[in-house]
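Much of what follows relies on a compact textual record of a protein's fold. A record is reproduced here so that you can trace the correspondence yourselves:
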Amino acid sequence: MEQKIKKDIGIGLFFFLLAIAYFAGTFPIESYNPFGDAGLSSKIVPQILAVIMAILSFSVVIQAVLKLKKLSTVNVSDTSVRINRNVFGKFVFAIVLLTVYIFLFDKLGFIVSTVFYLSAMIFLLVPRKNAKTGIFTVLFSVAVSFLVYTVFNNLLGLILPRGVFGY
């Protein structure tokens, strides 16, 4: 139980720091106001997402610390945390996939790079039971990518990279 709480604290702190870096990364975004002076620009959506991510990750840390305090029988001599190699390998692979996604985003465009990224992440995180799961994963990734692209492009008026296929 204590190891799970320590993992929650570590994960919460990691995502809190990631949210800060993500928020800082939004400042170079050129501001585009599709709705005039309504206050909604291409910069505000990522900033709102970064703030939400920071709040949620901080709440995970607070909840874990409160749980740790409730377990007042903490054994000080057992402070080592053993990391499962399989979980660590998936974590490293997910970071590598995210990095590749970021670099290919402008070159391949939103839809193509997002289909590859979502498919790879689902294959990484969800256990495969049969071939139908793989087909569903790819179809789901294509549908989500087109849906998000349509929402951002047509409803919000925010332009995502078009890429090699022109959409």
The first helix runs from residue 2 to 24. Helices lie at 2-24, 44-70, 85-108, 110-125, 131-155.
